[in-house]
Amino acid sequence: MGPSGAGKSTFLDGLAGRIASGSLKGRVSFAGTEMSPSLIKRTSAYIMQEDRLFPMLTVYETLMFAADFRLGPISAADKKQRVEKLIEQLGLSSSRNTYIGDEGTRGVSGGERRRVSIGVDIIHGPSLLFLDEPTSGLDSTSAQV
Length: 145
Hints:
Blueprint: H1 8-15, E1 28-30, E2 33-35, H2 37-43, E3 44-47, H3 59-70, H4 76-89, H5 110-122, E4 128-131, H6 140-144
Parallel strand pairs: 3-4
Antiparallel strand pairs: 1-2
Protein name: ABC transporter domain-containing protein
Main location: membrane
Domain ABC transporter: 1-136
C-alpha cells in the first residue's frame, strides 16, 4: 500500500483508536454508521508488526495462556476446545507442541510464529482485525499461507 515511511502504520493506528484522543480529527463510519473509538476497541483486534511471544512456551501453551487471559470465566473445556479449533484453522497442528523459540532457542518457523501471534489476538473472536504488515519479514511461501 506504499513505501516505508508513507504512514501506513500511523493510518492503521488512527483507525484502531491507538493514537491519543484529541491528536487526530475525523470520523470513522461503517455502512453509514459512525463508529466510536471505544466501540472499535471492544470489537476489534490489532495485530502488531512485532511479535511479542514467550519463547519458552509451546504453540499450544501460548494459545491457552491467551485464552485464559482473554476469555474470562468460561470453562476450561470450552477454552481448550477454542484453542484446538484455532490451532487447526491456523494450520498449526504439526507444531502445536513446538516451542516458540527466540534467537538462542530453535522454535517454530517465521510463518508459524506469525500465525501464533495472530491467534493470540483473535482467540476472543473479534469482529474486526487490524493487521499491521502481517507478511513483513516472511518469504513468499510463508506469506502465502
